[in-house]
Amino acid sequence: MNSTLNQLLLAIDSTGSPTHWLTWEEAVTCEVLGKIAYGFGDFEFTFRGGINRATGLISEISLKSILVLNGRSLNPFRNIASIPLTNAALFKRDQICVYCGKGPRGLTRDHIVPLSRGGKDSWLNCCACCSRCNGIKGSRLLEELGWELLYVPYVPTHHEGLVLQNRRILSDQMEILKAVMPKHSRILDRSTLQELK
Ligand SMILES: [Zn+2]
Questions:
Q1: What's the rounded Cα separation, in Å, for the pair 12 and 191?
Q2: Which of 47, 137, 153, 194 has its CA 20 to 30 A from that of 1?
Q3: pTM for the full predicted model
Q4: Domains, the chain, ranges and CATH?
Q5: For residue 184, how far is its CA from the centre of ligand 1 (angstroms)?
Q6: pLDDT > 90? residue 130
Q7: For residue 24, how far is its CA from the centre of ligand 1 (angstroms)?
């Protein structure tokens, strides 16, 4: 039961675009308010409420793992700026050290322009970096070291953000998300998928 309560359900809009994750409380509220057009997917969860006074039965709501909400999402990209820059999300975005290519184990967060030199703690100034490279780099700039980036940091898209936000994505939900991932994304490569299993 506990695992069911922790499971997030994937909301998609009527165009088929994944929009956000719903906790079970949010999903039940959507259902009660008639906001769910229909659900599908390989998994079904049953949530039990109180006793219905009219029938004397315990009320139950069953929901599928993927829920199509009525209407178009008002602004499915509203969360772009709010994808939290955590180490877990950063390492999933990058997978390997930005300087030597080692990984995905033992990564640290590197500020390309160090904080002490005016760099920001942002998606565009942060990369995954092995502890060895991070130690050598210290508070120096790349031009001072003659180093180059193996890949260019970027702000994850809304759909990548959905993958970064949920560590327990079900296989059917992942299929939906995979279909809308940008081509350059490393977020769904083998190491990430293994971690998600
Ligand atoms: Zn390295």
A1: 26
A2: 194
A3: 0.76
A4: 2-69 (no CATH), 84-145 (1.10.30.50)
A5: 21
A6: yes
A7: 41
Helix (H) or strand (E) holding 193: helix 190-196
* pLDDT over threshold 50, residue 196: no
- Say how many Å lie between the CA of residue 183 and the centre of ligand 1: 25
Q: In this predicted model, what pLDDT tens digit does every residue of 25-64 receive, in sequence order?
A: 999 999 989 999 999 999 999 988 777 778 888 888 899 9
Supply the pLDDT for residue 144: 97
> Mind giving me the DSSP string for 33-100?
TT-EEEEEEEEEEEEEEEE-TTT-SEEEEEEEEEEEESS--S-TTTTGGGS---HHHHHHHH-S-TTT
Q: How far apart are CA 185 and CA 26, in angstroms?
A: 29
pLDDT in tens, 8-33: 999 999 888 899 999 999 999 999 89
Q: How far is the centre of ligand 1, averaged over its atoms, from the C-alpha of 151 (Å)?
A: 13
Residue whose token pair is 């994750």 = 21
Measured in Å, residue 111 CA sits from the centre of ligand 1 at 13
Q: What does the alpha-carbon distance between residue 116 and residue 140 come to, in Å, rounded to a whole number?
A: 9
